[in-house]
Amino acid sequence: MYSKVYTCVLLCRSSNLLQNSPIIVKLIPAIGVVIFAIWGVGPLLFQIRKILFQVILQFFIFLVLTILTDSVHLIPNSVL
User: Is residue 79 part of a domain?
Assistant: First the structure.
């Protein structure tokens, strides 16, 4: 029970502090979120490219193997 009251008081004090502070202090969390988002976009795009390349490569391998196995069945037995 005591921790809930303490948490509420702490949040109220920090909220009051932010309401009375200049705009720069209010922008710090927003800037932090933007920097974190930009920092995370690079690895995310790299991972997406890696997965897409792997899927596309597997698809083309499957396609080539399918075409090759189908073409072997089309060749007459006398030629083999």
Answer: no
Q: Please tell me whether residue 70 adopts helix, strand or coil conformation.
A: helix
Q: How far apart are CA 36 and CA 13, in angstroms?
A: 26
Q: How high is the mean pLDDT of the chain? A: 78
Q: In the chain, which stretches have pLDDT less than 50? A: none
What is the Cβ-side half-sphere exposure of residue 77, based on CA atoms within 13 angstroms? 0
Please say whether the beta carbons of 26 and 18 come within 8 A.
Answer: yes
pTM tops 0.70, yes or no: no
Instruction: Report the pLDDT value the prediction gives residue 10, as an integer from 0 to 100.
Output: 74
For residue 18, tell me if it sits in a domain.
yes
Nearby residues of 18 by Cβ (< 8 Å), 6 or more positions away: 25, 26
- Distance (Å, whole) CA 40 – CA 36: 6
Domains in the chain, number:
1
